[in-house]
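Q: What does the assembly look like in three dimensions?
Context provided by user:
Components: two
Sequences:
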Amino acid sequence: MLRRDLLKYSALGALYPIVAACDRSPKWQRDAFRKKENSRVAILSATRYDQALKDTIVRGIKLCGLDVKGKRILLKPNLVEFDPKGVINTHPAVIEAAVDSFRGLGAAQVIVAEGPGHRRDNEYLLSASGLYDVIKEHRVRYVDLNTDDVRATPLRSRFTDLKQLYLPESLYNADLLVSMPKLKTHHWVGVTLSLKNMFGVVPGVVYGWPKNILHWQGINNSILDINSSLPLPQFAIVDGIIGMEGNGPLQGQAKSSGVLIFGDDFVAVDATAARLMTLEPQKIDYLAKAGEFLGNLDQEKIQQVGERLDKLQQDFAVIDDFHKLKKLTS
Amino acid sequence: MIDQVANALITLQNPDGGWGATRDRRSNTEATSLAVSALHSLGEESGKDRVIRGALWLTERQNPNGSWRLNDVATAGSWTTALAIIALSAFPEQQKRALDASRWLLTQEGSKPGILAELILWATGKSNVNRLNNDLIGWSWVPNSFSWVEPTSYALTALKKVRSSLTAEAVNERIQQGEAMIYDRMCKGGGWNYGNSKVLDYALWPYPDTTAVALIALQDRAGDQANQESLQALRKTADEANSGLAASWAAISLNVYGQDTRDWQKRVEKRFRETGFLGETKTLALALMALNGKANPFRI
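A: Here is the predicted structure of the complete assembly.
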């Protein structure tokens, strides 16, 4: 070991008691969160964006037993930045199929809403990503969550120092929030899926771009506090038809994965998605903590339906810092 | 076309006199400041009443410490204070309010990472993942967080507009350091992302809107090589973005540098016809400034 390494590990060792001491206070009210006994997650095969995705999405929703009749649905895709050579965003074909599906299943209203973390220019981002054509053709309302009216919302857990968050009124005017992330690795926290996708509901006009206050408070901590405090029921549809590996969430490489993942427990959905990427969910900091109070992380508590997980598993590359997440597979 | 854009903006004014981000949104300081600046710069008698009501929305909401909150729901002074200064500095009778706000702005500083965070970053070998000079302090989006290009640029523009009425020593030091911070964050080849030029050794790319506001803040250093490179970056990125917001910011920024903006004005008009800027107050206001060009509210 080099002297420099020794100094570093010594410094970390010296920090441990401080960090551990800070960690002793309870981060959430034990009786305020009740995990379900079991969570159902559907994995369905979908290999191309130009196939009939509506049927697959309807099947996924039905497999999870979700009733959307008469409900106001807010679809929250991951639309963060645009790179013509990249696969950063939830594909517009998946969003289009979701709009059709929820309408077809009797939803009273479907809107698409996002607060892009890296761009203030909605006209550019919607046009370049192809989503503008979808919302125009299907006459679906798009709400910029970055500039929506806001409501002060008390946090229900205390991983950050923030006591409250201003959240968009649109969350309070919907009956169901559908997180529609892209299946991606993330260079700061390992993976970005339905839980991390909730960064997009934090309004930029209050907190700035790229929502630095959440990074300042710790990305892992912020993910937990936002998700614990969402004011409405949730459902997830993960776009894993083509995912991203390596230096995600913006500059990674495309990874054809051929799946859509569904479920009403973000933790269970993200844990399943991580397993599909051959990453160990228990080793992903925020996911492990979320598994303690927000949802089910253990494979035994997840009733997995649709395709078999091991049949569709893909070896997602990660940056060096996250090699520790790689699950050894046979 | 200028009349159509102005009318579209006027119809978004709320009954309380302010503007929200889009129709039916609560009035906020960003949208109202930009709308007031844009309509006032037209100098037309017919819209005077609208402008006065908008300015009144702002003056009635100035905090006792000189700052502005984002809207009636928020509780603390915000980054939008700089935009309110820019808007009100155009009204001779509102100079005191603009100065009070500027003094508040001078008390605001972006934070540096704490010692514990620095130590953890150093110990994990990530002390320079973003290639930043953390000692350079500008302005943050929210209190107790990092300095970013956009709020720092708005603050610099606001302070430079009123600097002759402020104590030279205090304001000059902040302006110098703010400028140094912006130049430190410049992307390779010119232009600005939000605050970093690199993350984990990967170069970040410039954005047209961020580049435009940074160039506006640095307009009195037009001859600097960095400014010239960034003007090129602005033209390139705004061309690629092909949006009303990007074209409007490009026209406003190039205008303060005394450059021909007719092509950009044509783009603004084209995008307005095609998308109506999605009904966004901010873009409508900036488009109006871009198309007007004569009395640019962002000129220092």
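Follow-up: Strands of chain B lie at 198-199, 202-203.
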